[in-house]
Write a structure and sequence with these properties.
The protein is α+β, with helices and mostly antiparallel strands and 118 residues long. The protein is 35% helix and 34% strand. It has five helices and seven strands. The model has no long low-confidence stretch (mean pLDDT 96).
């Protein structure tokens, strides 16, 4: 499975982020792919620990069993793309109730990040 397949087909993906001491933490999150480009959001906005680590380093990796997909991450500031990302979250996570409403809320939309595979 490629990284794009993993991020497209897997409901809860696992992101590995770097600690200041060089260790890493793996966190389950949601991810979507829009027009071939992966996007992630922190359901808890900027106060999430994994989000703060990604903001500090600009990089992470997605872990799928034995597979590791290194990525760089940048904040998204494009309302048109953010609308498409909302639509993708609503389609992929339909039926997730309050968690879905939270991930497409204005506060969480502000934490949308574009993922670039390395």
């Amino acid at each position: 499975m490629t990284a794009i397949d993993y991020l497209t087909r897997t409901d809860t993906v696992h992101i590995a982020t770097e600690l200041r001491d060089g260790g890493e933490v793996v966190t389950p999150i949601w991810a979507v792919v829009v027009d071939g480009v992966p996007y992630i959001r922190s359901g808890y906005g900027p106060r999430s620990k994994w989000h703060r680590r990604v903001q500090r380093t600009g990089r992470a990796a997605f872990i799928d069993g034995p597979h590791r997909y290194p990525v760089t991450i940048e904040n998204l500031d494009d309302e048109t793309v953010n609308g498409k990302v909302d639509k993708a979250y609503r389609a992929k996570y339909a039926g997730q109730g309050a968690a879905l409403r939270q991930v497409v809320s204005p506060q969480v939309r502000a934490s949308t990040m574009r993922v670039t595979l390395q």
